[in-house]
Amino acid sequence: MKSVEIIFGEKLKLLREENLLSQRALSKQIGYSQAAIARWEAGLTIPNIQVLLDFAKFFNVSTDYLLNEKF
């Protein structure tokens, strides 16, 4: 079973690429650093709840989708 960090990272990267955004472009649009986005996508860390909510709103997905590999 994958860790939540890995699942979130994979989903974030998928959504970013589906929206044709680079990490840099996403960081400018959402207000978090490119380095943080890179760490999240690599599954090294998981963002706090407010950041999760910001990404869910930005990409118009649920937090369940972002954190659960079954969605």
SSE blueprint and pairings:
Layout: H1 4-18, H2 23-30, H3 34-41, H4 49-59, H5 63-67
Helix pairs in contact: 1-3
Keywords:
66% helix; 5 helices; 71 residues; mainly alpha; 434 Repressor (Amino-terminal Domain); single chain
Walk me through the structure.
The protein is mainly α and about 70 residues long. It has one domain (about 5-65): Orthogonal Bundle (434 Repressor (Amino-terminal Domain)). It is built from five helices and no strands. The protein has helices at about 5-20, 25-30, 35-40, 50-60, 65. The longest helix has 15 residues, at about 5-20.
Count the DSSP helices: 5
CATH level-1 class: Mainly Alpha
Distance between the termini: 14 Å
Q: What does the largest sheet look like?
A: none
Q: Fill in the CATH topology.
A: 434 Repressor (Amino-terminal Domain)
Relative strand content: under 5%
What is the element string, with H for helices and E for strands? Answer: HHHHH
| Residues in helices, as a percent range | 55-70%
Whole-number mean pLDDT: 97
Task: Please identify which CATH superfamily we are dealing with.
Answer: lambda repressor-like DNA-binding domains
Radius of gyration: 11 Å
Structural class: mainly alpha
CATH architecture: Orthogonal Bundle
Q: Which regions contain 5 or more consecutive residues with pLDDT less than 50?
A: none
Number of strands: 0
What shape does the CA trace take? globular
Question: How many domains, as an integer?
Answer: 1
In short:
Helix content is 66%, strand content 0%.
